[in-house]
Specification:
The chain has 324 residues and is mainly α. The protein contains 17 helices and no strands. The longest helix is centred in the N-terminal third of the chain and has 37 residues. 50% of the residues are buried.
């Protein structure tokens, strides 16, 4: 005699309500984050081309949030109890000052539309690949196709530059997918720490500020004072308040509520936003070949990350949460 499966097929109403609430909050946080990412790409691209001092930009990004979040990380300690040191090191290196330096240099070589694809546009791809490698997640045909399209799109964007003999620019562009890989590692490592978003952001910003201070001292104040006041204020807002504080906390919320791979899937929206913002701010209108590469890569990332299976589905949330 077999037991009727109907009783356990549908989760209880409180569970469904909590899952729906998590999805709504996580989705809202992820949308705010990708909008800030698009703004940050354009702002940092402007700073790189205007030769604003990199050390000061990094201090804005991590020092301001470190001060704002001081009550949080002072309470938890810079090394929260119960969190392995290797995980603390991973989240600091992969989303902190080393990540920022790598990406800021790369943004000096790539227009905003290309940077949007090569950086946040490939984060979901890297997250999917790491999940496959570490947690042995099975990939269906759509995800395999998505990975192939993502790689093809990145090559499509980089090839004209390399074919034109601009090897340094081509190499510089490759720093951006390397930065995307670091962020994907951070996504998995942060989930494993179990830290609340504010605590995680505070710890990252504290250690990153310590890393940056010697470079700020070596750079001195003069390079910063030589810049237009409006440009400096804009960088304080973009780097310190929006990117350093709001997006870092918001991404932590998205990962906590949605899981790592689903949160990373939203990064496929950032390339279009960066390209759109760059037109009025930087005067960068991407050529047709780059637009084609952007479209191919965004489609590939959406497929490989699982975004096209439905943002609202939580059918595999338990597996995702357990894995990350």
């Amino acid at each position: 005699m077999t037991a009727a499966p109907a009783e356990t097929a549908t989760p209880p109403a409180p569970q469904r309500s909590a899952a729906a609430r998590d999805t709504l909050i996580g989705t809202a946080a992820a949308l705010v984050v990708v909008t800030i990412w698009g703004t940050w790409i354009v702002g940092t691209r402007f700073a790189a081309t205007a030769e604003l001092p990199l050390a000061w930009l990094a201090l804005f990004r991590y020092g301001i949030p470190a001060l704002v979040l001081a009550p949080v990380w002072l309470r938890s300690g810079p090394l929260p109890m119960g969190v392995p040191l290797r995980l603390i090191a991973l989240i600091v290196v992969c989303s902190g000052a080393p990540f920022f330096a790598l990406v800021a240099v790369g943004l000096g070589f790539a227009p905003a539309a290309e940077a949007g694809v090569l950086l946040p546009g490939t984060m979901g791809l890297w997250a999917a690949l790491l999940t496959k490698l570490i947690y042995k997640e099975r990939f269906g045909g759509a995800r395999v196709l998505g990975i192939a399209l993502s790689v093809a799109g990145v090559v499509f964007i980089a090839m004209p530059t390399l074919a034109g003999g601009h090897l340094m620019e081509g190499a510089g562009r490759l720093l951006l997918p390397c930065g995307a890989f670091l962020w994907a590692v951070y996504t998995l490592a942060y989930r494993a720490t179990g830290l609340p978003p504010l605590v995680g952001a505070g710890v990252i910003c504290f250690w990153s500020t310590l890393m940056v201070i010697p470079f700020v001292v070596a750079t001195g104040l003069e390079p910063l004072l030589s810049q237009p006041t409006g440009a400096v204020i804009a960088q304080v807002v973009i780097q310190g308040l929006l990117s350093g504080l709001v997006s870092l906390v918001g991404y932590g919320v998205a990962v906590s509520r949605l899981g790592s791979s689903r949160a990373a899937a939203f990064s496929s929206l950032a390339p279009a936003l960066a390209a759109l913002f760059a037109i009025p701010v930087l005067g960068e209108t991407p050529p047709a070949v780059v637009i084609a590469g952007v479209a191919i890569t965004v489609l590939g990332v959406a497929l490989s990350s699982g975004a096209l299976r439905g943002i609202g589905r939580r059918g595999r949330a338990g597996r995702d949460g357990a894995a990350t």
